[in-house]
């Protein structure tokens, strides 16, 4: 048999039927659901008189609209509240394997909640009406975001109409330097391939630097695959993957566990498997990253400067940079370390797991946020992450430094709730998108790792966490 | 789903690369639990000078005269001309809903983000990929000539300019068939229920933990 990539294996084992043009019905094992992209899908089912095909595939939570403070007061915005209550009602009517509603202790960002519950398993196909579903590829699962029509389609049929992507291997060999994290690797890769570099591909991340990452680091990396244009990111299964999954609430037990593990161990790309494209980076070259523009590919290293559009020949690119600098309120050639910030956001499905919070806390222990920084929000990814952090005393470290310790949710990653930037405010953020208006209309977002965000909060401007 | 066969439509050129779905429809409008009514808030932050929130009367909001969609010559446009990586970012289907609700039926660009591209087909909106040079040519022609229209023929897979120049585009047979006939994809899939059940039987035997 010819050598197969991990993607080939995951794909072919889920094909139900295939048409002559390569369109397949792909079987979906796990369907994660949140309040923003599901109401129209449930309504579609209702209107057509259809029922979910397999309710036990559905795991749901409310995360985008939920507030991160004053939970006793409920959700104040009536439109947000209606959306969350609509999910409550839909789950009640249609059912689910599990639902973690607003205020439940298992509630959290859908991409943090799924893995920590063991609802995401190696070898699964995982979909969610959310582009960052790529996160779950960290477990050797084929995971990608879908639109609401597809949410309805998966609910009704347990399948997705899909076509196979091309495959790309992004190989990072060597050892990452001290203070360089999975987030920096992700941003460095996007800086290299561009935000459309992975369009049409499923990316597998490989190489010794990726194998050395923790599972949480791999989730951060796969989470950002979509920012490089790839609907899905993948990392091969190894012992770390299996250890992470073991004992979680929805992980297989007993005899099933042994069977599952035997299968999961095959979820690697075979020796000699061919990829349509290969990109290589040396881990030792990767420095802490900071974005300066309005797209994740507009990124440089902490020692870098804001680029000068006058130096760029391609007119579409040049105009893009000019528009980004105007929006960001930045001058060409400004050293990144001289950019002062107004707010800091530590959270989102990219960087709100326990390791992220530990990394941020380690940087600030015993220090105070800078006077020019108006607000530092630390938003854990889920209720379980929050409880763990509090058990370790991290919340005390944050509050002692003048940071705010909040309830879990998406929060200022996309500012659908009350947490947002005011026009012109500049933010060091551990989230994944620095688009215009993403964190609030007119808000200016710089993407960084948790350690870099924490260091910036203390310094009042960006600073190299390695010399901090 | 709405069928798409042919269209002769006014072209609106949006000369920006990497237009993301946050720009196409900002998040505050995602709180709606409906599928329609997003058109007035398409490109909200670029189109209006004030901050938009759900429930506002959009007809009295101050328009940004510099945004191309507001130029009187592009009123009623049905074909959006765009640059590379159109529709990147969030998977929100509200983006094609907003474009369709506004009146667009076709988006032409050198490249699209995958999820957005896929979402378009589910809503009778046809995304067409043409080579960058061709898109560039269409940009120049549409800016030069007021009232510039393109003819799109899905069955023939062609885009034709007013001067009669034709460009071919690709589409998978499956998508073309569904779009031409306005088919309900869920119904089509459910017609294969026995195959899905057979797959699940196999799954039960081979990977029992997945159905537990
Ligand atoms: S944290 Fe941000 S990117 Fe992640 S699911 Fe929530 S809104 Fe989307």
Automatic annotation (TrEMBL), chain A:
Enzyme class (EC, first level): lyase
GO biological process: L-leucine biosynthetic process
Residue ranges constituting the Aconitase/3-isopropylmalate dehydratase large subunit alpha/beta/alpha domain according to the UniProt record: 8-460
UniProt keyword Magnesium, yes or no: no
Any Pfam family matching the protein: Aconitase
UniProt-listed Enzyme Commission number(s): 4.2.1.33
Binding site for [4Fe-4S] cluster: 349, 410, 413
Pathway in which the depicted protein is active: Amino-acid biosynthesis; L-leucine biosynthesis; L-leucine from 3-methyl-2-oxobutanoate: step 2/4
Manner of cofactor binding, per the entry note: Binds 1 [4Fe-4S] cluster per subunit.
Protein family according to the UniProt entry: Belongs to the aconitase/IPM isomerase family. LeuC type 1 subfamily.
Name of the protein: 3-isopropylmalate dehydratase large subunit
TrEMBL record, chain B:
Catalysed transformations (reactions): (2R,3S)-3-isopropylmalate = (2S)-2-isopropylmalate
Domain Aconitase A/isopropylmalate dehydratase small subunit swivel, chain residue ranges per copy: 1-132
CDD domains the record matches: IPMI_Swivel
Claim: Electron transport is one of the keywords in the record: no
Keywords for this protein: Amino-acid biosynthesis, Branched-chain amino acid biosynthesis, Leucine biosynthesis, Lyase
Pathway the protein takes part in: Amino-acid biosynthesis; L-leucine biosynthesis; L-leucine from 3-methyl-2-oxobutanoate: step 2/4
Keyword Lyase: yes
Known EC number: 4.2.1.33
Biological process per Gene Ontology, one example term: L-leucine biosynthetic process
Cellular component per GO, a single term: 3-isopropylmalate dehydratase complex
Signal peptide: none
Entry superkingdom: Bacteria
GO MF annotations in UniProt: 3-isopropylmalate dehydratase activity
Quaternary structure (record): Heterodimer of LeuC and LeuD.
Family membership: Belongs to the LeuD family. LeuD type 1 subfamily.
General function of this protein: Catalyzes the isomerization between 2-isopropylmalate and 3-isopropylmalate, via the formation of 2-isopropylmaleate.
Name the UniProt record assigns to this protein: 3-isopropylmalate dehydratase small subunit
């Amino acid at each position: 048999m010819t050598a197969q990539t991990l993607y080939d294996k995951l794909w072919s084992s889920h094909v139900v039927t295939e048409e002559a043009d390569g369109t397949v019905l792909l079987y979906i094992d796990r369907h994660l659901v949140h309040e923003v992209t599901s109401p129209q899908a449930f309504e579609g089912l209702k209107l057509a008189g259809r029922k979910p095909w397999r309710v036990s595939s559905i795991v749901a939570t409310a995360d985008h609209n939920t507030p991160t403070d004053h939970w006793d007061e409920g959700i104040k915005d009536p439109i947000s509240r209606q959306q969350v209550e609509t999910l409550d009602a839909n789950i009640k009517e249609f059912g689910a394997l599990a639902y973690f509603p607003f205020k439940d202790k298992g509630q959290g960002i859908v991409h943090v909640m799924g893995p920590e519950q063991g609802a995401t398993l190696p070898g699964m196909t995982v979909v969610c009406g959310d582009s960052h579903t790529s996160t779950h590829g960290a477990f050797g699962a084929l995971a990608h975001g879908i639109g609401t029509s597809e949410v309805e389609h998966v609910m009704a049929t347990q399948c997705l109409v899909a076509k196979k992507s091309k495959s790309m291997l992004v190989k990072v060999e060597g050892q990452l330097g001290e203070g360089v994290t999975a987030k920096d690797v992700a941003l460095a890769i996007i800086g290299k391939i561009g935000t459309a570099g992975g369009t049409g591909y499923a990316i597998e991340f490989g190489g010794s630097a990726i194998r050395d990452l923790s599972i949480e680091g791999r989730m951060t990396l796969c989470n950002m695959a979509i920012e490089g244009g790839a609907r899905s990111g993948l990392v091969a299964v190894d012992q770390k993957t299996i250890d992470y999954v073991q004992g979680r609430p929805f992980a297989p037990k007993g005899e099933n566990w042994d069977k599952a593990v035997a299968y999961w161990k095959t979820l690697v790309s075979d020796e000699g498997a061919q990829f349509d494209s290969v990109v290589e980076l040396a881990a030792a070259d990767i420095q802490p990253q900071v974005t300066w523009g309005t797209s994740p590919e507009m990124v440089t290293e902490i020692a870098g400067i804001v680029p000068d559009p006058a130096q760029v020949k391609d007119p579409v690119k040049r105009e893009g940079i000019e528009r980004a600098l105007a929006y960001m309120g930045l001058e060409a050639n400004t050293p990144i370390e001289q950019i002062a910030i107004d707010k800091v956001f530590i959270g989102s499905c990219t960087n709100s797991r326990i390791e992220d919070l530990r990394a941020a806390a380690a940087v600030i222990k015993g220090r105070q946020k800078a006077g020019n920084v108006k607000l530092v929000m630390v938003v854990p990814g889920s209720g379980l992450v929050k409880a763990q952090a509090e058990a370790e005393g991290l919340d005390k470290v944050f509050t002692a430094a003048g940071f705010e310790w909040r309830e879990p949710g998406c929060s200022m990653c996309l500012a659908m709730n009350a947490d947002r930037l005011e026009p012109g405010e500049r933010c060091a953020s551990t989230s994944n998108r620095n688009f215009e208006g993403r964190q609030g209309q007119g808000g200016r977002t710089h993407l960084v790792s948790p350690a870099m965000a924490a260091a910036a909060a203390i310094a009042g401007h960006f600073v190299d966490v390695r010399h901090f | 789903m709405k069928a798409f066969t042919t269209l002769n439509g006014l072209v609106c050129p949006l000369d920006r690369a990497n237009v993301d779905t946050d720009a196409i429809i900002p998040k505050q409008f995602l709180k709606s639990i409906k599928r329609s009514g997003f058109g007035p808030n398409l490109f909200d932050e670029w189109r209006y000078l004030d901050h938009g929130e759900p429930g506002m009367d959009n007809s009295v909001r101050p328009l940004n005269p510099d945004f191309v969609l507001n130029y009187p010559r592009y009123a009623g446009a049905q074909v959006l001309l765009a640059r590379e990586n159109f529709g990147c970012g969030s998977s929100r289907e509200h983006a094609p809903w907003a474009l369709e609700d506004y009146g667009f039926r076709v988006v032409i660009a050198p490249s699209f983000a995958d999820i957005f591209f896929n979402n378009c087909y589910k809503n009778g909106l046809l995304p067409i990929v043409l080579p960058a040079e061709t898109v560039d040519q269409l940009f120049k022609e549409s800016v030069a000539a007021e009232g510039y229209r393109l003819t799109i023929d899905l069955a023939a897979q062609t885009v034709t300019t007013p001067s009669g120049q034709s460009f071919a585009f690709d589409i998978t047979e499956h998508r073309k068939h569904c779009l031409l006939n306005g088919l309900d994809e869920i119904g089509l899939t459910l017609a294969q229920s026995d195959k899905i059940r057979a797959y699940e039987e196999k799954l039960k035997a081979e990977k029992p933990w997945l159905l537990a």
